[in-house]
Design brief:
With about 475 residues, the chain is an all-alpha fold. The protein has helices spanning about 1-20, 25-50, 55-65, 70-75, 75-90, 105-140, 150-180, 180-205, 210-230, 230-245, 260-280, 285-290, 295-320, 320-330, 335-370, 380-400, 410-465; strands at about 90-95, 100. Helix content is about 85%, strand content about 0%. Helix 12 runs antiparallel to helix 17, helix 13 (about 295-320) runs antiparallel to helix 15 (about 335-370) and helix 13 (about 295-320) packs parallel to helix 16.
Length: about 475
């Protein structure tokens, strides 16, 4: 009861600040979620360093990287859901308790979309559990010969928790696409707080790698509570639509064609997202395999710090994605560009400030405390943070393009993944973390940034003509 009252008072305080300052509620919740990540990140890093050995830290961050393999089971469908929903919700609106009102054709198309993603994510979650658990057990066995801590059950629970969160995620993709960004970001903030606190408790009680599942558990509980309490009719619509389609022989009159509408966008986004795994998540498994858990732990710790300020910067752009889709549906190009460039400048300011502050803090730790040695050396950290900062800008241009329900970056993503994956493997084996960080920085600066910018410039001119 005390936790419930505390969270309620936090939400009321945020609402009061919004009324006094005029700050957009969606952005405020998103920013606070990122601020919590920035606050919770160092706390988690500190507790991990105190409660986990070097080897456990390596297992911890390598598990997190392997769990990102869920992208191979989702295949970018959530981005498609958000894009399609934003266009359909130009004719729809939310009612009390999650009811949806408006144009009957748009409502029928949304219902059909929901029934499709329930089947997709249900199958994907089952396959994730069936394939990833044994694959992870085999992978970690090669580095577990001399360890004396539990990792098998924590790994299994972590995969199950990830699969459940994977199944829940598309419901929030629909809500995000509808424009109710406040709901999604508020849930994200509360879920992050609960998940972090649970993981700290587990780590504090010497629960070791079980802390990874604790994070997933917090998100699962909060997500289910938000959906069932605040949008119960939406959930009824979702599963009723799926059952009706399953047991009725007649086809839906105004359905969304998977082959003609969804798949042409999804397969491109799927390749882009899968390529992103080789750009962002391949470092830890390679270092774990070739250089041991200690170096993998250093890379994981530094990447976690980088993702903290990166997450805060992209929240500005992510919160405007539904608005971009609605403006595109109405051909309001000038308003679209004005909002985009304003948000892009804010993103660049935040990511630059965050990178500088984070590097100074880590450098201070490295010069004065033993915990600083859990991070990469200062020069490598600076290179990594610079590249991650550029990724925030690249994310902005990519978001603009994908809001058009198109994915022109697919081929470039595949090429970039081949370049980055090959460089990470070759240079990582020979030069360890230094080779990986150097290759990542150069490829981001010389390939990703110019190719995404010129692609954005080219298609913006064609689409808006």
């Amino acid at each position: 009861m005390t936790v419930k009252k505390t969270l309620k008072s936090v939400i009321n305080s945020i609402s009061t600040i919004n009324r006094l300052t005029g700050i957009d509620r969606a952005i405020s919740y998103g920013v606070l979620a990122s601020l919590w990540g920035i606050l919770a990140g160092p706390i988690t890093l500190f507790i991990v360093a105190l409660r986990l050995s070097n080897e456990q830290q390596g297992f911890y961050y390598t598990i997190v990287s392997l769990l990102a393999l869920q992208i191979f089971f989702e295949l970018g469908f959530s981005a498609v859901i958000t894009a399609f929903t934003s266009h359909e919700f130009a004719k729809l609106k939310w009612g009390a308790s999650g009811k949806i009102y408006g144009d009957s054709t748009a409502l029928e198309r949304i219902t059909d979309l929901i029934s499709k993603f329930i089947k997709w994510y249900g199958l994907g979650s089952i396959l994730l559990i069936a394939l990833l658990i044994p694959a992870g057990l085999l992978f970690f066995e090669q580095g577990a010969n001399t360890i004396d801590f539990s990792w098998r059950i924590p790994w299994i629970l972590a995969v199950i928790g990830t699969a459940i969160n994977l199944f829940i995620s598309p419901f929030f993709a629909v809500i995000m696409g509808s424009g109710d960004v406040v709901f999604v970001n508020q849930r994200g903030l509360i879920g992050s707080i609960i998940g972090s606190c649970l993981s700290w408790i587990v780590l504090g009680l010497h629960g070791g790698l079980y802390a990874i599942f604790a994070v997933s558990l917090g998100s699962i509980v909060i997500s289910c509570r938000y959906l069932l309490k605040k949008k119960p009719y939406f959930m009824v619509l979702a599963f009723r639509g799926m059952l009706n389609k399953a047991f009725q022989n007649d086809s839906v009159k105004h359905s969304i064609s998977w082959r003609n509408e969804i798949w042409p966008m999804q397969w491109k986004i799927a390749l882009s997202w899968i390529s992103g795994y080789f750009v962002f998540q391949l470092f830890n498994p390679i270092l774990f395999h070739y250089h041991g858990a200690h170096v993998a732990g250093q890379m994981g710790m530094t990447l976690t710090a980088a993702n903290a300020f990166l997450g805060m910067s992209v929240v500005w752009m992510a919160s405007k994605t539904p608005e971009f889709g609605m403006l595109i549906a109405k051909n309001q190009w000038n308003i679209l560009d004005r909002i985009f460039f304003k948000v892009l400048k804010q993103t660049l300011l935040i990511v630059t400030s965050g990178a500088i502050i984070a590097w100074i803090f880590i450098y201070f730790l490295q010069m004065n405390y033993e915990i600083g040695r859990r991070f990469l050396p200062p020069s490598q950290t600076a290179l990594l943070f610079s590249a991650v900062g550029l990724q925030a800008v690249i994310y902005g241009f990519a978001t603009y393009l994908r809001a058009h329900k198109k994915e022109p970056l697919m081929l470039h993503s595949v090429v970039g993944a081949i370049l980055q994956g090959g460089a990470a493997l070759l240079l990582g084996i020979k030069y360890s973390s230094f080779g990986m960080v150097m290759s990542y920085s150069l490829i981001t600066l010389l390939y990703w940034l110019p190719i995404v910018f010129f692609t954005w410039k080219y298609y913006r001119r064609i689409w808006h003509r």
